[in-house]
């Protein structure tokens, strides 16, 4: 389930900030927690009590702004089990800081509503290298580092389930390491940036800021490169997400995205939308 498909930290009307939910046998695994993720889960009909694990690709705010809010909202919605969370440093510090921030509310509900301690139900593991980081009866999750400009380290995640394999690129430039880990996956969920669209959105957000445009273009994957990645990895289906720009009809429309990738990838292309279910 694509919960949020926008790219970048600015406030947007057209799409929600980055987040995805993988649902296997009714259990929920969330990849990135951009602003509004808990609300998007509710709109998608996803039961927060079923949250098993959270995977943060990197620490840009559009990917983890509502990390703590998701955990608190899930706990308030009847969550009983331990939630395992994963991501690059300083995830442990951020988790601790959020627990301190929420402590007044949590302790009040412990006393007044017999709620369990939130911190006791969250197990954090920071990622420092490629490899299998989590496995249960539903999924095996492999983390692998990807290049994302100054936001280092950044990771993508491959999920192997009894039914299918799904890989989430996170934010990345064209990556040989991603291609290696994506070999033969059924579904590749990959970010995408339009160069001309990035220039247009840069002028709208912060006119004259060439460094902003440079970052957008140099730290993300251009359409022809996305197609090259999907072709090299021989993926079954390519799902586009994290659209830059978001909400400019000239650039952010399904046919424009498909046409820009088709020149280098002949397989199935899905232009992601918020709350879109992918099977």
From TrEMBL:
Keyword tags: Hydrolase
Short name of any one Pfam family annotated for the protein: Lactamase_B_2
SUPFAM superfamilies: Metallo-hydrolase/oxidoreductase (SSF56281)
Annotated Metallo-beta-lactamase domain residues: 18-220
CDD domains in the cross-refs: arylsulfatase_AtsA-like_MBL-fold
Signal sequence coordinates: none
Keyword Hydrolase carried by entry: yes
InterPro entries: AtsA-like_MBL-fold, Metallo-B-lactamas, RibonucZ/Hydroxyglut_hydro
GO MF entries: 3'-tRNA processing endoribonuclease activity
Superkingdom as given in the UniProt entry: Bacteria
PANTHER family (alphabetical): ZINC PHOSPHODIESTERASE ELAC PROTEIN 1
Stated name of the protein: Beta-lactamase domain-containing protein
Species of origin: Thauera phenylacetica B4P
């Amino acid at each position: 389930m694509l919960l949020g498909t926008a790219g970048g930290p600015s406030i947007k009307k057209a799409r929600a900030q980055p987040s995805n939910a993988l649902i296997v046998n009714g259990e929920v695994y969330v990849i990135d927690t951009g602003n509004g993720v808990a609300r998007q889960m509710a709109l998608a009909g996803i039961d927060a009590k079923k949250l098993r694990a959270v995977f943060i690709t990197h620490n840009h705010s559009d990917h983890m702004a509502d990390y703590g809010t998701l955990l608190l909202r899930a706990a308030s919605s009847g969550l009983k089990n331990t939630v395992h969370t994963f991501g690059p440093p300083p995830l442990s510090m951020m988790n601790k800081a959020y627990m301190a921030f929420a402590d007044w509310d949590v302790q009040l509900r412990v006393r007044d509503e017999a709620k369990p301690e939130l911190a006791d139900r969250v197990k954090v593991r920071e990622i420092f290298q490629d490899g299998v980081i989590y496995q249960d009866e539903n999924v095996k999750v492999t983390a692998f580092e990807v290049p994302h400009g100054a936001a280092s380290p950044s990771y993508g995640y491959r999920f192997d389930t009894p039914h299918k394999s799904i890989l989430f690129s996170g934010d990345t430039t064209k990556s040989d390491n991603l291609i290696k880990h994506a070999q033969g996956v059924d579904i590749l969920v990959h970010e995408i940036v339009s160069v001309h669209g990035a220039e247009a959105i840069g002028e709208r957000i912060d006119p004259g800021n060439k460094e902003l445009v440079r970052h957008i273009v140099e730290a993300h994957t251009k359409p022809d490169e996305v197609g090259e990645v999907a072709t090299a990895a021989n993926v079954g289906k390519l799902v586009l997400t994290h659209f830059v720009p978001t909400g400019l009809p000239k650039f952010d429309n399904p046919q424009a995205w498909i046409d820009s990738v088709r020149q280098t990838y002949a397989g199935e292309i899905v232009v992601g939308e918020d709350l879109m279910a992918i099977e």
